[in-house]
Amino acid sequence: MFILFKGRFVLITGFSGAGKSGALHSFEDLGFFAMDNLPPALIPKFAELCVQSEGKIDRVALVCDIRGGELFSGLFEALDRLEEMGFGYEILFLEAAEEVLIKRYKETRRRHPLAEKGGMVEAIREERKLLEDIRGYSNVVIDTSELSLADLKEKISRLYAPEGREKKILLTAISFGYKYGLPLDADLVFDVRFLPNPHYVDSLRPLNGEHQEVKDYIWKWPVAHRFFKRLKDMIEFLLPYYVKEGKPQLVIAIGCTGGKHRSVTLTMELCRVLAEKNYQIRVEHRDMNKA
Question: Sheet of 170-177: strands edge to edge?
């Protein structure tokens, strides 16, 4: 049976504690029909109901995760059924760093769904293994480690709000420090640790990449200009192809040692250049204010 659905059908999944409930509330605020913890076997049935509603249910957000226990193992079978039906869907995957998930569970005093099999750390790592395949199958992956609920809501709004359907692609540029680890949701990562480091200039060490003195120091080196031109050309070459493939968002990460000077300056300049090309872009300085 081939059915046509002209609406938007978003399946939300990911790690326990990564913010799926907050995400679902955000979709509900956007006018989506929202449903939590739907067993995978019922997803195709619900898809048929959406079609039969004749437009009354045209935006749907469903949460499906490991709380379903053994039922969750049928998720790929349900997705295969949707594809057989010709029913379009999207998958939003939420994740967070292990230490962040542990902290959130301790704060809420809730038990991890897999905690019966072992301690908290073991449960989180087991869940990571169980979700590995669906993560790779997802259209959008959001790392909520550094996001507040308000930040997550804004990000979902920019990706899924009805008035945003015509936007070609949402770009996020992140500056970060390698000493704190890679951003989990980065699509493209560029290492600028080869550039001269303002950290070793006493007057610049307390400043960050947004200060003019730091910018002047970085841009006085010809290698910085040569690298940035190649970076800009590569990004501008890639973006139309990502748009053509229907990718809704792209996360570009630029890293230096501490995420305070070089990565911040180059990330800001990349944002300026892409904004001039009329791309929608937001910036995050993940580690700029860390000690």
Answer: 188-191, 249-256, 170-177, 280-285
